[in-house]
Structures are given as structure tokens and as C-alpha cells.
């Protein structure tokens, strides 16, 4: 009987390995790499990257958090004391997701960068959802860019010192705040912080927050709470664009694809050519100097949920920070949100 049980255990382990599933928890104490072809990785309990260790997560890797049904204190977290290199690609993101959605709750505590080594810590081109705080940054200066952070309690929580660089993220559908800052001095630029249930940016009235060239809109309670009173106060008129505050931030609907905002933009677009399939009188088609168009396929991007992709009518396009380090891949001015910026960042 004992031999049979052991054999079954070995077979189960072999099958799990054969299908690429890896179950992880505990402490990572040395250089470790997670690859898409070896996953998905199932985080079954707290995972700590030790001070001397480095966790590298390759593009396309899927991390599933097994936390459904646990109380808050028992929910898993990924705590980084050493370094975390979590760098996906624009069309091949890294994904952190709970194994199931909890009603009126969250399934894991999120990624906690607890004094992590800033030189080697970066989270970019990743999708993170379902956490109490998707990314918490304490006393460190990591680079967080081009991520889609959705359906969490807090998107990014900055506390306890540090100067994290937060660029070109989409932070939406979070409950308490898109970004919360306590005793920290983050640089926040080129992000879209929209449609969160309460605050967009929640400060503490004492942290030095460099908040410029972001789109903040539709956060149900307020866009800014306990922040610089000039944030969101539109003062600059920009030709052919939405006005901005003194720091280049816009307070306007980012206009995602397939939304009422896009439909309204199409209705008032006088430059839009008529779709020939909608012309009822065929005699009109033969009239000279009338230019008709065929339906054009929309450009797709994988980062962010299906209803959070920028429309071509978005005011966020080419409205980010003008610096050379932020330029889009095609050399144009930065576009706010995950679509904008370079594939690799150097500052």
C-alpha cells in the first residue's frame, strides 16, 4: 500500500512537470529564472526573494496566485528583499492573476518591494490584477513602467521613503486608489489613472510627489485626494488638444476603444469618410470627387483588458512628457499609458 501511494505521488509530480506547471512558495535564496515554457507558476503561499537573491521573470510567463477562500492574513504575497527583474514585452506581457475572482474581496496581497535593490529591480510590460495592493514600494527606487494594473484594492502603494519611477502605466478599476503615497517621493509620469472606485491619486499632504503628464479621469470619489491643490486645475490651453494643469496633466476621458466616448468622437469627426457599405443610394457612389472608405481594422495591443485599449481619438496620444527618454518607438512624443514609450528604457 505504501509503495502504491509513493508511486502515485511520483507520477503526479511527473505529470505536473510534463505539463509545465510549477508550484512555488517559501524563500528564493539564489539567482532564479522563471520562463514561460516552464509555467504557469502557481504561488501557493508567501514567496520571499531573499536579500542576496535575484528573481528574473521572462516575457510571456504566467503567474497564478492560489489564494481563493483565504482570509486576508493568509493571502499569499510576493515579497522582494533582493531584486526582481520582471520585464515582459509589449506584445508578450508577464501576467499575475488570481486563480479565481473573489466577490467583494481580493485573492492575494500583491508584490511587495521591501527595500529591494533598485539597480536591478524593474516591473514592466506586465498585467497585475486581483490584489490588495498590486505593487507596494517601500524604501526603494524601482522602475515601474508600461504595466496594466486593474481590479485591485490599490494599484501602486508608495510608502516609507524611496523615489520610485512610475511611467506609462494603466491603472484602472481599483477600489481605494489608483496610486496611494505615504512618506514617499515618487516620480509619476505618462500614466492613465482612470475609472477607479474612489481616488485616482491619494497623497498625504507632505510627500514630494512629482506628478506630470498623466491622464486622470473618472475616479468616482475624486481624482486627487490630499495632494497639491494645483493638480488637475486646468490652466494651460493647448492648441487642438485638451487643456492641461500646470504640470501637463489632463483631466479628460482617455477614450478607450468600443466605448461611448469613442462612439461620440466618431459622430463628430467631420474628417471621417463615409463607409461605402452604409450608403443606401448606389447613385451617390458614382458621383465624382466623393471619397469613400472601407472599414479599417483597429490596431491591437495585448496590454490591458479588452475594453481598456486607446482609441485613435484619445487625448492621451502624443500627450506624455516630451523628453527624449520617453519618446515612442517611432520617435514621436510619448503616448500616455502602456502603449507609449520605448521597448527598453534608459534614463
Give an account of the 3D structure:
The chain has a domain at 17-225: Pectate Lyase C-like (3 Solenoid). The longest helix has 17 residues, at 2-18. With 347 residues, the chain is mostly beta strands. β25, α3 (282-285) and β26 (292-293) form a beta-alpha-beta unit. The protein is built from 3 helices and 26 strands. The strands form 3 sheets. It has a 16-stranded parallel beta sheet that branches. Strands 2-4-7-10-13-16-19-22 form an 8-stranded parallel beta sheet, with no helix packed on it. A two-stranded parallel ribbon has the order 25-26.
The averaged pLDDT comes out at: 86
CATH topology of the domain at 17-225: Pectate Lyase C-like
Structural class: mainly beta
CATH architecture of the domain at 17-225: 3 Solenoid
Principal-axes shape call: globular
End-to-end separation in angstroms reads 62 Å
> What's the CATH class label of the domain at 17-225?
Mainly Beta
Q: Count the helices. How many?
A: 3
The largest sheet is: 16 strands, parallel
Backbone CA Rg: 23 Å
Order of helices and strands: HEEEEEEEEEEEEEEEEEEEEEEEEHEHE
Q: What is the β-strand count?
A: 26
Uncertain segments are 1-18, 289-301
**Percent of residues in helical segments?**
under 10%
- Percent of residues in β-strands: 25-35%
Amino acid at each position: 500500500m505504501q509503495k502504491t501511494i509513493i508511486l502515485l505521488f511520483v507520477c503526479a509530480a511527473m505529470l505536473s512537470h510534463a505539463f509545465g506547471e510549477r508550484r512555488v512558495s517559501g524563500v528564493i535564496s539564489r539567482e532564479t529564472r522563471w520562463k514561460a515554457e516552464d509555467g504557469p507558476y502557481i504561488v501557493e503561499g508567501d514567496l520571499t526573494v531573499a536579500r542576496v537573491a535575484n528573481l528574473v521573470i521572462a516575457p510571456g510567463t504566467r503567474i497564478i496566485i492560489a489564494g481563493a477562500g483565504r482570509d486576508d492574513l493568509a493571502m499569499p504575497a510576493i515579497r522582494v528583499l533582493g531584486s526582481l527583474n520582471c520585464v515582459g514585452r509589449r506584445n508578450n506581457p508577464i501576467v499575475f492573476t488570481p486563480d479565481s475572482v473573489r466577490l467583494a474581496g481580493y485573492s492575494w496581497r500583491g508584490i511587495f518591494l521591501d527595500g529591494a535593490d533598485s539597480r536591478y529591480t524593474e516591473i514592466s510590460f506586465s498585467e497585475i490584477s486581483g490584489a490588495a495592493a498590486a505593487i507596494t514600494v517601500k524604501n526603494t527606487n524601482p522602475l515601474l513602467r508600461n504595466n496594466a494594473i486593474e481590479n485591485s484594492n490599490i494599484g501602486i502603494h508608495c510608502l516609507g521613503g524611496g523615489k520610485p519611477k512610475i511611467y506609462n502605466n494603466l491603472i484602472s478599476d481599483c477600489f481605494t486608489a489608483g496610486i496611494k503615497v505615504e512618506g514617499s517621493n515618487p516620480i509619476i509620469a505618462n500614466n492613465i489613472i482612470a475609472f477607479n472606485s474612489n481616488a485616482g491619486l491619494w497623497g498625504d499632504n507632505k510627500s514630494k510627489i512629482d506628478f506630470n503628464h498623466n491622464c486622470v479621469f473618472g475616479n468616482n470619489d475624486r481624482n486627487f485626494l490630499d495632494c497639491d491643490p494645483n493638480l488637475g486645475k486646468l490652466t494651460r490651453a493647448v492648441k487642438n488638444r485638451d487643456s492641461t494643469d500646470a504640470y501637463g496633466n489632463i483631466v479628460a476621458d482617455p477614450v478607450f476603444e468600443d466605448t461611448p466616448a469613442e462612439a461620440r468622437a466618431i459622430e463628430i469627426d467631420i474628417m471621417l469618410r463615409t463607409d461605402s457599405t452604409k450608403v443606401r443610394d448606389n447613385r451617390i457612389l458614382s458621383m465624382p470627387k466623393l471619397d469613400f472608405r472601407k472599414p479599417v481594422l483597429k490596431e491591437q495591443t495585448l496590454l490591458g483588458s479588452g475594453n481598456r485599449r486607446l482609441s485613435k481619438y484619445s487625448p492621451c496620444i502624443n500627450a506624455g512628457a516630451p523628453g527624449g527618454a520617453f519618446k515612442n518607438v517611432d520617435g514621436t512624443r510619448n503616448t500616455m499609458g502602456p502603449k507609449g514609450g520605448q521597448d527598453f528604457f534608459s534614463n
